[in-house]
Every structure is written in structure tokens, then in C-alpha cells.
Amino acid sequence: MKKINVKKKEILQRTGDLRGKAYFVESGLLRSYTIDEKGKEHIFMFGPEGWIVADYASADEPCDLYIDALEDSVVIQAEKDGEIEPDLKKFVKRMRVLQKRVIMFMSASAIERYEFFVSTYPNVTQRVPQHMVASYLGITPEALSAAKSQRLKSGK
Amino acid sequence: MKKINVKKKEILQRTGDLRGKAYFVESGLLRSYTIDEKGKEHIFMFGPEGWIVADYASADEPCDLYIDALEDSVVIQAEKDGEIEPDLKKFVKRMRVLQKRVIMFMSASAIERYEFFVSTYPNVTQRVPQHMVASYLGITPEALSAAKSQRLKSGK
DNA sequence: TCCATTTCTTAATATACATTAATGCATAGG
DNA sequence: CCTATGCATTAATGTATATTAAGAAATGGA
């Protein structure tokens, strides 16, 4: 368990890595993501201050996700087994975020997804480019842009 | 912690219930799902033998999900806090299933989603109607039917 | 057994989002 | 300060999936 400084764009973990760590974000912003066969990135989660970013492979399995830094960050790196987050309650909370996200994907339109993102990450909205938000939501940047200008016209 | 017999179609938990329980499935088949504003069901997970079905609300928050039985089942009902699943490893495994599902929703076509379902639930495929599989995958029954007959023609 | 209901499939049409492309703006780094 | 790069937006076109509708097969309850 050690504190490390991470520069923007630095990669902390790659798909296929063994013994993936868990990262507690003290300051800055991480993200985790996959790259599909077509080379397209899909952002799995953002990790602003106070969040934990980790792949959910067991400690002895290869990771599914890349993890990198979107801003210069200070993070605490820990072994997955125990050092961090021995707390079931925290696990339950993270499960719930995932549960809501799955339900969102099953039923929500582009603009509803965007609103979900804003409520999940109120402090991240202004810190990441919109194409990354789109990636997180599973839509294209063009569709997100269209949905937002659509919403502006009709009321709000 | 007690063992209960559940009849097909019996509802174990409703959206908004407090003190939701966790259900370990000894035999039979449960499912959890939401109902959206339009009255449409979205299946969150299936629970065949050996699986645990629960909402990820904390013990003191209202539940998001309905849980009911798709077959006559025998289940062990437990308090969420501790009685069942004190095991971090099991949590990690379930997280990983959710992680894969989220990634699936971000990038997979109808037929790829179907293949994901078959590999996640090899023993469930023949036991649930196809419209429930479609609901789990976030597509319509018509789209699933079309995707499958598409696949049959082209090769397999 | 019989009838009502559920389930699956197919087809026609509609629609949300993807793709492609072009433009202008902002930004970072030399 | 300049320039290359990244970013956001808009528009035209394409496509996968949704919607609607109908009919046939399977299922289950009385």
C-alpha cells in the first residue's frame, strides 16, 4: 500500500495484466476503459476524488480494463485482497451504482443517459471532454451533442 | 435465515420494500426485474440453482427491484447484512458479471448479446420464454427472433 | 378435452442513433 | 506567437433495432 503521483495520460494498468491493483483517488481523476476489436474505447467508470478504481478480476486473473489518468493525480495503490475496502457496505454501494447503470442501459434514451451521468458524477461533468462522456454512456459524441441541443430547444 | 418453498409466479420482493432479503436458490429459478414508467419489464438477472438473488440497496434503503419465481423453487432467505455471503471473493465474482454486462451494453449487437446470455446462463436458456431473454438483453423479442434466424442462415 | 392465453415468428413501417464528412474553435506545446 | 492537434457542432445518409400488426403453434387451466 503506497501513495503515488500519477501524471495525466499515464497508464496504471492494461488489459491482460495480472495482479491488478485497486486505486483510491486522493486527488485528480482516473478512468477505466476497454478497447474493442474495432479499436473503439468504452469508458467503464470515472474515478474522481474519493472514488476507488479497480478491475473486478480476482487478484489472480488477468484484468479486463485499462486504467489511466485524465488529470495529474495522487492515488493510493493497494492490493485488491484486503488492503483497501474490507468494507461490505462500500461494496454494496458500488454494486448499486452498477445495478442502476445496467438498468439505464436497458431502458434509457440518449438524453436520459446523459442526465444519469450528471447525477452520478456532478463534479466530473466540466472536467472531461464530451466524447468521453458519450463513450461512458454508450453513444457517439454526435448523438450526445444532438440530444443536448434538442433538450435546450424544448424547454430547459 | 430460513428455507422456504416458493411457488411459480410468487413475488418475494417489490420495488420500494424495506429490509430486502438475499435469496440463495437451492432449486428452481428466480428473477429480479424493474418496471419502467411505460409499464415495461426489464429483467436484471436470473437466479438458477446455486445463484444468489438480491437487490443492492443497503439493508435500510428501499429496494429498486422486484423478485419473483419463474419456477417452483426452494430458496434460503437471509438478511443482507452478513447471514449470507460474508465472502469478498463472491462479491468480486458478481461484480465481474455486472462489469461484463455493462461492457456488453456499451458495445455489443443483438446477436452478440444473445451469445453473452447463453454463456452466462447455459442452463437457463431452455427454461425461460424468449421474450424474457430479450428483456434481459435490452432488446425486443422481435429483434431477438430476427437476430437468431439471421445467424442460422449465415453459417451456424 | 377444449378454449383462452401465451409464445414465437414474419413483415411493413418508423425511428433513434451511427457513420461519414466538413467546418470552426479552442488548446497545448514548441 | 504560431501551428498542429484535439474538440464540438451540424448536416446528409445509412442501419440496427423498435413499433405495430397479424397469424400459427404451443401451453395451461377449467
Structure description:
The structure is a homodimer of 156-residue chains. With 156 residues, the first copy, chain A, is α+β, with helices and mostly antiparallel strands. Chain A has four helices and eight strands. In chain A, strand 4 (30-35) and strand 5 (41-47) form a beta hairpin. In chain A, helix 2 (110-120) crosses helix 3 (130-137). The longest helix of chain A is centred in the middle third of the chain and has 20 residues, at 88-107. Chain A starts with a strand and ends with a helix. The relative contact order of chain A is 0.18. The mean pLDDT of chain A is 90. Chain A binds chain B through residues 34, 36, 40, 42, 44, 55-58, 64-65, 80-82, 86, 88-89, 91-96, 98-103, 105-107, 135, 138, and chain B through 34, 36, 40, 42, 44, 55-58, 64-65, 80-82, 86, 88-89, 91-96, 98-103, 105-107, 135, 138.
Strand content of chain A: 25-35%
Largest interface: pair, residues per side: A-B, 34 and 34 residues
Secondary-structure element order of chain A, N to C: EEEEEEEEHHHH
* Oligomeric form: homodimer
What does the radius of gyration of chain A come to? Answer: 16 Å
Number of distinct helices of chain A? 4
- What is the terminal separation of chain A in angstroms? 47 Å
Structural class from helices and strands of chain A? alpha+beta
Largest sheet of chain A: 4 strands, antiparallel
The overall average pLDDT of chain A, rounded, is: 90
Strand order of the largest sheet of chain A: 1-8-3-6
Amount of helix of chain A: 25-40%
- Poorly predicted parts of chain A: none
- Global shape of chain A: globular
